[in-house]
Every structure is written in structure tokens, then in C-alpha cells.
């Protein structure tokens, strides 16, 4: 029998197997994915701002992926429990971590002994958005802009105080205090919701809320947002000035992406990138992201992974500026 005939028969057998959905040794096939329920991991509690984002994308990805998507909340240790869980899960694309990449980068310096080397243990499959923290005061305050807040806080000296509830907010607060020459005392809270009563009662002078909380409180008529921490105005909130515009240059951003274990086959990573990018590009998602003051961001896996590594380096500087003592 000629080698040509054997090759042809092998080709026909391979084609038939592929058509029947049979995975052949050595052939990575994104078409066979997903094969079971998919789990979206959230590092924070149900009902939190993070949870809202995770559940939105679970809902939008479900019909595209063609399988049920279950949201699992694994709060604790600044999100590190969820990070560990994802990094140690089976790298088959059925466990997907939907989270803030800026927080993951920060944890590499904020935690004394990170149990996961995130840049090497996790691979970004797709990106979602870029946002920033904000500087806010109670809505009935006579202060109208960041310049007026600075003047008022200088008068109070070390009697001035501000609230924050996450590392990114702590960094922005420290940068503003440093660049404005303030003596304001930082007050840490476990969650953003916990500092609202103190802010609105006047026990705290100003706060550094995240974009989701800030916009919700502003729409409710309770908070006035004075500035955002990004270097340029957000597309979603072009009316909100930057701290840089008032003479306090900074560019502290938060951003979201989906992560999978680094050993996940590349065809699956690429397929997830295509699916997520389709969702992010829709007008519905753009409106959703704009509602929480964030701009859509679509990037390929390698580009996003490089940005992630750069963010980890930047956070080394942020931790020093904010004088954050490593935890754990």
C-alpha cells in the first residue's frame, strides 16, 4: 500500500473524528470547550460592587459559552483566597477569576508573603475595563471643588481626616495628602459601606470611594465627587475633573479582567478572549460600565499580561508612597 494512500486514510480518519467531536492526541481544540459548568470566581462578598460586575458578565457570557455559569464568592484576605483557589484549580478553562487586576498587582506588595506569584500563576484571558478611585465629600458640604477642600483641610491640620476601604484608595489618599501638603489622618474601614455614616455625619471630612460606590451615592444625592484619580478624565464621566487638573498630578487606576490558571491551553485562552471582547464591545456593556464610571478596555492576552507585570512593578512604588505596611 502506498504511503500516499496511508496518509489520505489518516487524514480522512482525523477529519471524521473531528467532525464527531472526538479529541485526538496532540490536537488542542477550543471547539470542544466548555464541556461542563463554568465557575466564575469572585473574591468579595455577594452584593458587593465586585459581585455586581462578576454577575453581569456571568449573565452575558452564559449564552455565548453555551453552558451554565455559576458565580462562587470566596471573600477573604484582600481577595487572596479567591486568587489561591483559581491558581490551584484545574487549568481547563472551567474556573475563571473575574477580578480587579490592580488589586492582584497590589497584593504582590501588600501581602508579606503572597502565597501565589500572580504574574506567573495566572494568565489574563481578556480585559473588561479601566476605572479609578475618586475623592468625595457629603453632598450638603459648602465645599465645591478639590481646591476648596485642600484649603479647608489645611486649616484643620492634623484634625482633618479621610476614609478609605481598599489599597488602591489608600494609595490615592496618600498621594493627594502628599501633593497637597496636608496633614489629614487616614481612617481605614473594612468596606466602603461602613464609612458612609461617618462621612455624612461629619465625623470624617472626605473619603476615597471606588467608582461603583461613588456613582451610586452621587446619583442618590448623598455624595459630591470632587475629582478622580486618573491622569485624564474618564470617557464615562467627562464632567468629573482629575486631581491633576487641580495641581496634584497622579494616575491611580483600577482595572478588571478575567484570569485563568497559567497552564490553561492557549486555544481556550484565545477563545475566552474573543467571547469576552464581544461582550465588552456591546452597547449594553458600554452603558453598564459607564454607569459605574469606568471605560471599556479590550486587549489581547499577551498585551494584557505585560500590562499586568508593569502594574506589579508600579505597585512597588505605590506601597512606598502610601507607607503601606505589608500584611500577614
Structure in words:
The protein is an alpha/beta fold. The chain has helices spanning 3-19, 49-65, 80-87, 101-110, 118-121, 146-156, 167-180, 192-201, 211-219, 266-280, 283-291, 301-321, and strands spanning 38-42, 69-73, 95-100, 122-132, 134-138, 161-164, 185-188, 206-207, 223-228, 253-261, 295-296. The chain starts with a helix and ends in a 7-residue tail after the last helix.
> How is the biggest beta sheet arranged?
6 strands, mixed
Overall form: globular
Helix count?
12
Number of E-state strands? 11
- Indicate the CATH class of the largest domain: Alpha Beta
Structural class comes to alpha/beta
Strand percentage: 15-25%
The overall average pLDDT, rounded, is 89
**From the alpha-carbon coordinates, what is the Rg to the nearest angstrom?**
23 Å
Please state how the strands of the largest beta sheet are arranged side by side. 2-1-3-10-4-11
Along the chain, the helix and strand elements come as HEHEHEHHEEHEHEHEHEEHHEH
Write the CATH architecture name of the largest domain: 3-Layer(aba) Sandwich
Number of structural units classed as domains? 2
The fourth-level CATH homologous superfamily of the largest domain is: Bordetella uptake gene, domain 1
Which range best describes the helical content: under 10%, 10-25%, 25-40%, 40-55%, 55-70% or over 70%?
40-55%
Distance between the termini: 69 Å
Amino acid at each position: 500500500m502506498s504511503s500516499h494512500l496511508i496518509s489520505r486514510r489518516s487524514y480522512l480518519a482525523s477529519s471524521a473524528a473531528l467532525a464527531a467531536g472526538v479529541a485526538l492526541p496532540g490536537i488542542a481544540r477550543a471547539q470542544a470547550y466548555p464541556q461542563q459548568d463554568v465557575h466564575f470566581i469572585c473574591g468579595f462578598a455577594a452584593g458587593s460592587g465586585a459581585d455586581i460586575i462578576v454577575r453581569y458578565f456571568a449573565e452575558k457570557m452564559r449564552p455565548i459559552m453555551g453552558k451554565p455559569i455559576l458565580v462562587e464568592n470566596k471573600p477573604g484576605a484582600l481577595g487572596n483566597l479567591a486568587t489561591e483557589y483559581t491558581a490551584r484549580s484545574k487549568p481547563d478553562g472551567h474556573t475563571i477569576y473575574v477580578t480587579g487586576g490592580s488589586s492582584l498587582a497590589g497584593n504582590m506588595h501588600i501581602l508579606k508573603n503572597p502565597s501565589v506569584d500572580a504574574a506567573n500563576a495566572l494568565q489574563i484571558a481578556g480585559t473588561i475595563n479601566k476605572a479609578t478611585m475618586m475623592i468625595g465629600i457629603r453632598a450638603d458640604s459648602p465645599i465645591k471643588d478639590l481646591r476648596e477642600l485642600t484649603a479647608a483641610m489645611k486649616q484643620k491640620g492634623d484634625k482633618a481626616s479621610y476614609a478609605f476601604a481598599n489599597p488602591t484608595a489608600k494609595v490615592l489618599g496618600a498621594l493627594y495628602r502628599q501633593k497637597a501638603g496636608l496633614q489629614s489622618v487616614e481612617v481605614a474601614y473594612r468596606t466602603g459601606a461602613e464609612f458612609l455614616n461617618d462621612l455624612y455625619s461629619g465625623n470624617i471630612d472626605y473619603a476615597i470611594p471606588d467608582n461603583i460606590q461613588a456613582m451610586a451615592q452621587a446619583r442618590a444625592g448623598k455624595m459630591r465627587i470632587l475629582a478622580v484619580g486618573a491622569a485624564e478624565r474618564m470617557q464615562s464621566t467627562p464632567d468629573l475633573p482629575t486631581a491633576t487638573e487641580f495641581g496634584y498630578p497622579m494616575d491611580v487606576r483600577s482595572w478588571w479582567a478575567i484570569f485563568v490558571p497559567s497552564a490553561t491551553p492557549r486555544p481556550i485562552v484565545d477563545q475566552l478572549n474573543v467571547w469576552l471582547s464581544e461582550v465588552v464591545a456591546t452597547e449594553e456593556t458600554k452603558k453598564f460600565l459607564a454607569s459605574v464610571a469606568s471605560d471599556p478596555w479590550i486587549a489581547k492576552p499577551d498585551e494584557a499580561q505585560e500590562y499586568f507585570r508593569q502594574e506589579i512593578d508600579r505597585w512597588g512604588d505605590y506601597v512606598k508612597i502610601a507607607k503601606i505596611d505589608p500584611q500577614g
